[in-house]
Amino acid sequence: MSASARQNRAGLALLAPAAILATVFLLLPLLAIIVLAFTDYQLGDRSLRFIGLGNFRDLAEDHAFWRSLSNTLIYSAIVVPGSVGLGLASALLVNSSASFKSFYRTVFFLPVMASLLAMAVVWEFMLQPSFGIANAVMKLLGLAPHNWLKESGLALYVLAVIGIWQSFGFNMVLFMAGLSTIPRELYDAANIDGAPNAWTRFTLVTWPQLGAVTIFVAITSGIRSFQVFDTVQSLTQGGPNKATEVLLYTVYAEGFEFLRSGRAAALTVVFLVLILAIGLLRFLYPGRQGEAA
């Protein structure tokens, strides 16, 4: 046997465990979901019936589905720019501070490391209408208190604020990695050319050099925001009156509360298509470092 053949066999042997695990835990469950999406299967039934595109037609006519999709899009439209902007600002702050860099890095990254279900208890206490910190501050400012998680016009935006708080620390780390790759000579050249202040150096050097990183962070944040479930489940359960029901919560409700597995699978397929569409946006951008976002 030739040396190249032995190398190929060794490579396949090393690849085999990962390929088997991916098939068992990713591809086969995905295939099962796709098959179930075309059936009327209900959890616990001993039989199922193929109904073609029936589940998808029902979703197209279901007001609750469009409401959850709309809520997800609104949530993402708030969380993505908020977490990206705050993550960039935090990275610039940490990068410019020599004395407290470790402190800032720990504090800003803490929400990423913390268990969201545990932190949801803290948020629920802070937003409690009778004795919560949020309403105490509102009263000090002379503003009317609110029942933050029970008002239809506020609840989704409150969850979006929590989503920004949870996500910006991760984005900060990505931006810090991007900042570390910017050559110092570019800043020296900007000073020689007469860049008068930090804002000018940011717009001329830092922002253009972070173009590819910013696109990556925005797409990653978009995917993460579409996956919101924990805060909805622990704080609002989709209420009030479905004001905070998002796609993943609808999947959960259909599959485990109403036991309509076929319909839940169809919702999952729609969700996966949306996630795939967001991920494919990365390939529409050339991703060359140094381009403006």
From TrEMBL:
It is found in: Cell membrane. Keywords: Cell membrane, Membrane, Transmembrane, Transmembrane helix, Transport. It comes from the Bacteria. The keyword Cytoplasm does not apply. The chain crosses the membrane at residues 12-38, 73-94, 106-126, 154-177, 264-285. Residues 69-282 form the ABC transmembrane type-1 domain. It is a multi-pass membrane protein. Belongs to the binding-protein-dependent transport system permease family. This is Carbohydrate ABC transporter permease. It comes from Rhizobium puerariae.
